[in-house]
Amino acid sequence: MPDFDASSMIYAWDNYPERQFPGLWEWIEVRIQAKDICMSIVAFDEVKLKALDCANWLTQRGIEQHDITNDIVQDANRIKSLLGIVGDNYHPKGVDENDLLIIATARANGMQLISEEHQPLPPNELRRCKIPTVCQLTSVAHPCTHFIEYIKTVGAVFR
User: Fold this and answer.
1) How far is 116 from 108, CA to CA, in rounded Å?
2) Which residue of 65, 79, 138, 155 sits 20 to 30 Å from the alpha carbon of 103, by its own alpha carbon?
3) What tens digit of pLDDT does each residue of 24-77 get?
4) Rounded to an integer, what distance in angstroms lies between the CA atom of residue 147 and that of residue 39?
């Protein structure tokens, strides 16, 4: 089951409008209702801030939102420490607190993370890592892919 980052849900909403791609959104709706697509509450809140119409659509379809537990916060703090982030000294080109909570939520629930963030080469400074690069770190080792790759992996076809 995939856990969507806000970036992927907003990407899908913006680039594959429901009016032009009704089959895609019908498929997403079925997967939401089957609890095969979910989001952390943190990612959902980001969607609400950036694409309220998308958040409303997701709410109407019953998207499952995972709460942030103490174990998730502890894992996020472990990753934060691994990246060398002290206090709120996040790098503007790297992950932020929400990103760490989103990664830790996917890890805690054993779900592949779907994120549209890109970082072709790992940065020299770990604080500059984006979500996919953080997921690739040996001590995080969590599956992360892009929306279109997820569609290809599950073999969905829309006519």
Assistant:
1) 21
2) 155
3) 999 999 999 999 999 999 999 999 999 999 999 999 999 999 999 999 999 999
4) 14
CB 146 within 8 A of CB 115: yes
- Per DSSP (E only), the strands in 27-151 are 38-40, 64-66, 112-114, 144-145
Report d(CA 125, CA 127) in Å as an integer: 5
Contact status, residue 133 vs residue 123, Cβ threshold 8 Å: yes
Q: How far is CA 116 from CA 9, 19, 159, in A?
A: 9, 22, 24
Whole-angstrom Cα distance, residue 67 to residue 60?
19
The domain segmentation of the chain, as residue ranges, is 2-154
pLDDT digits (tens, 9 = 90+) for 81-116: 999 999 999 999 999 999 999 999 999 999 999 999
Q: According to CATH, what is the number of the domain 2-154?
A: 3.40.50.1010
Residue 87, both tokens: 């206090």
Cβ count near 129 (within 10 Å): 26
